[in-house]
Design brief:
Elements (H helix, E strand, L loop, with lengths): L6 E3 L16 H24 L5 H6 L2 H22 L7 H25 L1 H4 L7 H5 L17 H24 L2 H33 L3 H9 L7 H15 L1 H9 L1 H22 L3 H23 L4 H4 L5 H28 L7 H33 L10 E3 L2
Antiparallel strand pairs: 1-2
Length: 398
């Protein structure tokens, strides 16, 4: 960061502040890289090979979206709760501006490709533009629609809009910190219960009407009311970190244990989903179970001295940095390129095709990151450098 003559800026570390000047945590990068890798492998199986190309990993790879949700809940929740108790205060206007500059440019470029380049969407129909523009495309989304993987982006944008407003409203209504915390934890608990009840009711309706998978994806899997468990779990972690320092210290003191427990819980959830993904029990309770597993892994990834926090997987940092761009582009790029390679005699299961498409997913994501995301991040750094309501304190050098 360039220094201004006569002064320096005091910026705290990434996880405790609203500043964009951050210290990267290798454990979080590893989890983010794992999330995007799982999604890319799953979509390859689903939309390109239509075969068990990567075994059970490709089959369960859709959980990468849920891991993204848990990470977003923790990181965004941490920004909000840390900001609300910081000397600079928390600005809703600055938060929204920073989120829009982070998410919209890449999204709009890819959306333009879908609408202006027919080959990019293939034969899949598009929803009206206004639904994508307002991030409500996941409402009763029918499988097979173009840019269908943007359903998760819609849920995240809805989360970005609601969470900070609700947090500020809860703090204002209760007045005292203790009252606000009681309200916050009660709301989190009730939201988990409500999500399970909604899924149970919809599953029963699906069974009675014999709607099966079409109904499951349209009204359960893509639904905002059914798919916020991991986001909520991440928010709960952020609340623990910022308002219950003693409990947080106890958890992070045993980072390796949290990591082992997280792996065991995730393995259990994955096993249930692989055995009976659309069953009643796993539909109702599987997402909270997976949210618990991912939450434990996040604790392990930020705990001082834990193996996961210090783990440096080659390329994971870059994949984490480019993950949003990769997520947006990989599906249409792979489908188009697979068609061309098929015409050259290389089927979807050929090692050359697999390697080429996975590499293409990374390269095109990197290009989107460099050409679109990076310039807007620089604009954000210049005009909205933090979520703070008041400028950061400066220390004058005499």
């Amino acid at each position: 960061m360039p220094k201004r003559r006569g002064m320096i800026r005091n910026f705290p570390t990434e996880t405790a502040s609203m500043s964009t000047h951050s210290t990267r945590v290798h454990g979080l990068d590893t989890l983010r890289a794992l999330a995007v890798t799982l999604v890319v492998l799953h979509h390859y199986v689903l939309f390109v090979s239509n075969a068990p190309t990567f075994g059970w990993v490709g089959e369960i790879g859709w959980v990468g979206v849920d891991l993204f949700f848990a990470l977003s809940g923790y990181l965004i929740g941490n920004q909000i709760f840390a900001g609300m108790k910081s000397p600079g205060g928390f600005s809703l206007k600055h938060f929204y501006a920073r989120r829009l500059l982070r998410t919209l440019p890449n999204y709009w470029v890819v959306l333009a490709l879908y609408f202006l380049w027919p080959a990019f969407r293939g034969e899949a129909p598009l929803l009206p533009l206004w639904e994508y523009a307002t991030f409500i495309q996941n409402f009763a989304l029918e499988p097979g629609i173009a840019f269908s993987h943007s359903w998760s982006l819609a849920i995240e944008e809805q989360f970005y809009v609601l969470l900070p407003a609700l947090a500020l409203l809860g703090a204002a209504l209760k007045g005292s910190l203790r009252g606000s915390l009681r309200l916050a934890w009660s709301a989190i608990a009730l939201a988990f219960i409500a999500g399970m009840l909604v899924r149970a009711n919809l599953w029963q309706e699906m069974a009675e009407q014999n709607y099966k998978l079409y109904f499951y994806f349209k009204y359960i899997y893509y639904s905002s009311l059914c798919r916020y468990d991991e986001l909520l779990a991440g928010v709960a972690l952020a609340l623990l970190r910022n308002q219950h320092a003693g409990i947080w210290a106890q958890l992070t003191r045993h980072g390796n244990l949290m990591g082992v427990l997280g792996l065991l819980v995730c393995a259990l959830a994955f096993r249930f989903f692989l055995d009976d993904r659309y069953g009643f029990g796993i539909t109702v309770f599987g997402f909270p179970l997976m949210a618990l597993g991912f939450s434990l892994l996040i604790v392990a990834s930020v705990a001082e001295g834990s193996l996961l926090r210090g783990l440096r997987v080659p390329g994971a940092g870059q994949l984490a940095l480019w993950s949003y761009a990769i997520y947006l582009l990989h599906k249409p790029v792979c489908v188009m390129a697979a068609g061309w390679l098929q015409g050259q005699g290389y089927g979807a299961g050929h090692p050359l095709t697999i390697g080429a498409l996975l590499l293409l997913s990374v390269v095109t994501g990197w290009l989107l990151y460099k050409l679109v995301e990076t310039p807007f991040m620089l604009l954000r750094e210049r005009y909205v450098p933090s979520n703070a309501a008041r400028p950061a304190s400066r220390q004058v050098i005499v």
